[in-house]
TrEMBL record:
Sequence similarity: Belongs to the pyridoxal phosphate-binding protein YggS/PROSC family.
Keywords: Pyridoxal phosphate
Protein's UniProt keywords contain Ion transport: no
Residue ranges occupied by any Alanine racemase N-terminal domain in the UniProt entry: 6-223
Necessary cofactors: pyridoxal 5'-phosphate
Organism: Gracilibacillus orientalis
Lineage: Bacteria, Bacillati, Bacillota, Bacilli, Bacillales
A GO term, aspect molecular function: pyridoxal phosphate binding
Name of the featured protein: Pyridoxal phosphate homeostasis protein
In-chain residues carrying the UniProt-annotated modification N6-(pyridoxal phosphate)lysine: 35
Keyword Lipoprotein: no
Function: Pyridoxal 5'-phosphate (PLP)-binding protein, which is involved in PLP homeostasis.
NCBIfam families the record matches: YggS family pyridoxal phosphate-dependent enzyme (TIGR00044)
Cross-referenced Gene3D superfamilies: Alanine racemase (3.20.20.10)
């Protein structure tokens, strides 16, 4: 399948989910996750109309950014080690994985203009997942006002791989509620208007529950060989 063919199918599914939820497809941003694919395939995605690109590792980001550059808006979606911040900060437009004070401090220090960040939340409570516990979110985001170069534009979560749609739905719904609570505070450093949730296998449910940013890898740029 070409990326364009995959994208057409995804857009149909987005439309369907939006119709169900009374939402406008224009309010959904597709982030094309290119972490498993070649530069050529990533370029194909951009040429097919993907404007937002996501990478989860420094190496992948460097490689893709070098070849695609300003044609895309760049999202860093993976765990970010503090010592690597200085290498990526000038390339990325959004960070989806802000989950600790030390990282906020480092980001704040390495840039001179505000960076749009999503705070990562571990809604499902799985030990293997990164992110803050839901009960710590408000205190954490409140504290971020001490770092003028951090702007909290939303919350992000990675749902577990589950077939039970109701459990997934509960996870997405919880994140939506958390996000609304923060948004209602009208903190200037944390407008928190976005929800980054939903991947290839669950983005329709995520959209029904309010996702504004869906992060799509395999359904968009696959199929590819599983790595590692
Ligand atoms: C890989 C990845 C995705 C995309 O996953 P697919 O299931 O291939 O769509 C989304 N978000 C994060 C954080 C990822 O690491």
């Amino acid at each position: 399948m070409t990326v364009a063919e995959n994208l057409t199918q995804i857009q149909k599914n987005i439309k369907q989910a939006c119709d169900k939820a009374g939402r406008n497809p224009e309010d959904i941003t597709i982030i094309g996750v290119t972490k498993y694919v070649t530069i050529e395939r990533a370029l194909e995605a951009v040429q097919s109309g993907i404007r937002h690109v996501g990478e989860n590792r420094l190496e992948g980001l460097l490689e893709k950014h070098q070849n695609i550059g300003e044609q895309a808006i760049w999202h860093f979606i993976g765990t970010l080690q503090s010592r690597k911040v200085k290498d990526v900060i000038h390339m990325i437009d959004y960070i989806h994985s802000l989950d600790r004070k030390s990282l906020a401090k480092e980001i704040n220090k390495r840039t001179d203009k505000p960076v749009d960040c999503f705070v990562q939340v571990n809604v499902s409570g799985e030990e293997s997942k990164h992110g803050l516990q839901p009960e710590n979110i408000e205190t954490f985001i409140d504290m971020l006002r001490n770092y003028p170069n951090i702007r909290v534009v939303g919350l992000m979560t990675m749902a577990p791989h589950l077939d039970d749609e109701n459990v997934l739905r509960d996870i997405f719904r919880s994140l939506h509620k958390l996000k609304s609570n923060i948004q209602d505070k009208r903190w200037t450093h944390a407008p928190c208007q976005y929800l980054s949730m939903g991947m290839s296998n669950d983005y329709q449910t995520a959209i029904e529950e309010g996702a504004t940013h869906i992060r799509i890898g395999s359904s968009l740029v696959g199929p590819y060989e599983e790595q590692g």
